[in-house]
UniProtKB/TrEMBL annotation:
Descriptive protein name: Peroxynitrite isomerase
Record family assignment: Belongs to the nitrobindin family.
Top-level class of the enzyme under EC nomenclature: isomerase
Species: Tessaracoccus lapidicaptus
Cofactor: heme b
Stretches of the chain forming a coiled coil according to its record: none
């Protein structure tokens, strides 16, 4: 098993060490209206000696006409593992919501489910619940994100394969 423990990583974060770094790639998605889209994504997991990872993700819509990238979304947050391999994640999106997810770390697989979602009055989408799966596959970071809104039940929203850069 290829488990990485970056230098200076707080021992409480050992189970998440494989995530630390910068990841980039492309993915696919389905918006809240059911329309398909392609995107480019940049994710960074970093640490500062604390017992949490700092997470930042930016996605850019890939235009089919080759016109370039359009900002799609951005989220930041904190990933806080617990000694029993459970995980708490707090994310805030530029779209106007904050989500608390809870889950389990299984070596290089992480399963997360929404525990709570809070939206602003002007939130771009009525995000109400989610579930996420992250995994390391052949050295890449792969994930799938399902989302429910006030208009539809939980369904696939975004999925991607990202390479460490």
């Amino acid at each position: 098993m290829d488990i990485e423990v970056p230098e200076g990583l707080n021992p409480a974060l050992t189970a998440l060490g494989w995530l630390v770094g910068r990841w980039e790639g492309t993915g696919n998605g389905t918006d809240h209206e059911g329309k398909a889209f392609e995107f480019e994504q940049r994710i960074e997991f970093s640490h500062n000696g604390g017992d949490y990872l700092y997470y930042a993700s930016q996605t850019f819509l890939l235009e089919t006409d080759g016109a370039g990238q359009v900002p799609l979304s951005m989220e930041t947050g904190f990933w806080r593992p617990k000694p029993d391999a459970s995980l708490e994640v707090v994310l805030t999106s530029a779209e106007g919501w904050t989500e608390v997810l809870i889950g389990k770390i299984q070596v290089t697989r992480i399963d997360l489910l929404s525990d709570a979602v809070v939206r602003t009055e002007t939130a771009a989408v009525g995000h109400s619940a989610g579930q996420r799966l992250y995994g390391k596959v052949e050295g890449d970071l792969m994930y799938a994100l399902d989302r429910a809104t006030t208009e539809h039940e939980l369904r696939p929203h975004m999925w991607a394969r990202l390479k460490r850069i």
